[in-house]
Amino acid sequence: MLNKFLLLLWALCFTASTQAAMTQFGSEQTIGLNKQGTPVFRSLDTPTVVTFWASWCPYCKKILPLLEGLQRKLGTDKIRIIVVNTREEGKLRQTRRTYKKFVKQFEKKGLQLEFVFDKKHALYNSLKKPGLPYTMVIDKHGKITYTKAGYSEQLAQPMLAAIQSVLSDNSAAKH
């Protein structure tokens, strides 16, 4: 019984310390690089949604249309949605080629999401490799209000609620 209690206490402490480290996302912190190789940062004017994805991940392919629909519906003046290509197989040159190939495909389709590349998986690894897809909702002040690894229809509802919450806070702050 005592062992179970200690194990539970250890798990709660580990979870709390991991989450505590991820409460803020600085305005100077690079999310990734755009296709020109320029660093991309979170928005200072609107909430930012950041989702890490990889081309081999079936759940990543399911969340991208949802995010695209949100970006189209809400517009870039209300929210900035950035999808970060990471954890592709191969060496850096090969993973960069994979990223550029997908950017071309997404541009041909007229997708409005902002696609960036996580060079050497720097940001993803700093998050302790949380799984894919991995989504963060960040308010305009840099506070991380939601994080979740994975995707399913059941997981979409809390994510959408978190996005709605930061949008409500953002519009209330403007008035």
Automatic annotation (TrEMBL):
GO molecular function, one term: disulfide oxidoreductase activity
GO terms (BP aspect): cytochrome complex assembly
CDD domains: TlpA_like_family
Protein name per the record: Thioredoxin domain-containing protein
Localization of this protein: Cell envelope
A matching Pfam family: Redoxin
The entry's keywords: Cytochrome c-type biogenesis, Redox-active center, Signal
Classification via SUPFAM superfamilies: Thioredoxin-like (SSF52833)
PANTHER family: THIOL:DISULFIDE INTERCHANGE PROTEIN DSBE, THIOREDOXIN-LIKE PROTEIN HI_1115
Gene Ontology cellular component terms for the protein in this record: cell envelope
Record's signal peptide: 1-20
